[in-house]
Amino acid sequence: MKQITLNRKKPVISVPLLLSAYFGMLAFLPVSVFAAPVFAADPINGQKIYLMHCAGCHGQNGISDMPQAPNLARYEIFTKADQALIDTIRSGRNMMPAFLGILNDHEIRDVISYVRTLH
Question: Where are the domains positioned within the chain?
């Protein structure tokens, strides 16, 4: 009996083909896989923190009675990026004390979300 041997070639996969397949699969992943984590802010908690730490100068409804404290119910506050507001709250400005070490970033985001409801 004669034995038959098949002459099979091993598949050849080139590096460019392999890389294009890999990066092609990345296109189907959701964008959130690559994005920074997003934390939802809580305006109800922000109101509690605001009333405890901020209302004394900025007023309970964001309208300040003190000439040095900005009116938080004005339009300018709504055009500033959250990160700029976080930095200001952390480091303080003029008469406003720094809240770094008093409020964490999540609490600051909560306050910002509450202040944005004051308009």
Answer: 43-115
Ramachandran angles phi, psi of 93, nearest 5° = -160, 135
Q: What is the pLDDT along the chain (119 residues), one digit of tens a residue?
A: 556 555 666 655 666 655 555 555 555 555 444 444 556 799 999 999 999 999 999 999 999 888 888 889 886 778 899 999 999 999 999 999 999 999 999 999 999 999 999 87
Chosen CATH of 43-115 out of 1.10.760.10, 2.40.50.100, 1.10.10.60, 1.20.5.170: 1.10.760.10
3-state helix, strand, coil in the chain (%, to 5): 45, 5, 50
